Amino acid sequence: MDDEKLVQPMSTLESDKNQGYILSGADDPIMSTISKRKRRAESPLDSVYYDKQPLAHYAPAPFTEELPPCLEPWRRVTKDDALSGRVTRPIRVYADGIYDLFHAGHARALMQAKNLFPNTYLIVGVCSDNLTHSMKGYTVLNETERYEALRHCRYIDEIVRDAPWTCTPEFLDEHRVDFVAHDDIPYGAAGTSDVYKDIKAKGMFMATQRTEGISTSDIITRIVRDYDTYVRRNLARGYSAKDLNVSYINEKKFAIQNRVDKVKDKMKKVEHKTKQVVRNIEGKSHELIQKWEEKSREFIGSFLEFFGADGTWNTFWRDGTSIIRQALSPPASPSHSPQDSPSSSRSTEGFDGLEGAEGGDPEGVDLGTGGSGIDFSDSDSDED
Fold first, then answer.
1. What is residue 83's three-state secondary structure?
2. Tell me, what DSSP letter sits at residue 152?
3. Distance (Å, whole) CA 82 – CA 88
4. Which of 214, 284, 309, 312, CA to CA, is 20 to 30 A from 20?
5. What confidence tens digit (pLDDT) does each residue in 95-122 have?
6. HSE toward the beta carbon, residue 83, CA cutoff 13 A
7. Alpha-carbon gap, residue 323 to 329, rounded angstroms
């Protein structure tokens, strides 16, 4: 890899003329494992950076006194040399603080310090309880707890216990510090308005950005604001009033409030279950009404099909009525017998010669004494 690529800063950093290299808000370096692997494959510079700088430690960060003394010669490098990539050793960056109630804001500041240069060795100094209480105020966690919280931060390579409030040149030389990383807000102390004033003048200061919305003071403010809630919660979990520094009257008051809250919770649960039952009943009622409407349509259709004007019942009634009428009063016999019937031929047999002169009209036949000469008078009349 040529030197031209090495002198370029990391893609997650951007240049600032006064403050050096700080994290870009648009390119958050907190990436998923997949994106990290993708970056390794796509960028040779990132590949070199991550090969030299593991993404995670598998043991707590050591304290300074636990490390063997370094006998190699050391010379402080400039910012240009550190950014050029031509320095073969890791760049030693120092970040100090109280780190009470270690939170995401602390972790992000240390992450920024770790990413200042392509190859960074991050040393973190933590002030003791005595120094912190005298200079700043009381802490929630004691120094041992604060040390242990920092030891498990993945960005830290070394921890300095009982760190000084002001970084003197002797302290920086002792720990071979190249640069000091901190946010750029002035921190006053006895006799100075900014404890990092001399370090900034030497060009050794590297500014990091604060994380908005979270700090140790913010967390304490939340606890103080919701004091009653947290006291009641811890009393319910078995802490005594003495542990919480609560008076007897307040203890009883909080106990009553806890009972009232339990009753309210039970009422809410009952109300919730009642609403669920009502919803279920409403859903079932809608379903029953819909089914009833469907069945009623089917019933009305079947009724009309059977009892309607052209339904089965009326058709059956008309047909049955006609059958019964025919059975009770059959139609009359025909007034004239068919011409081809035997009775007709027999009745006219022997009268063929009696046809009239005008086409055999029977009306022309004289059935009296004249005409044919046949006498139809009663024989008794002759005897008379």
1. helix
2. T
3. 10
4. 214
5. 999 999 999 999 999 999 999 998 999 9
6. 15
7. 10
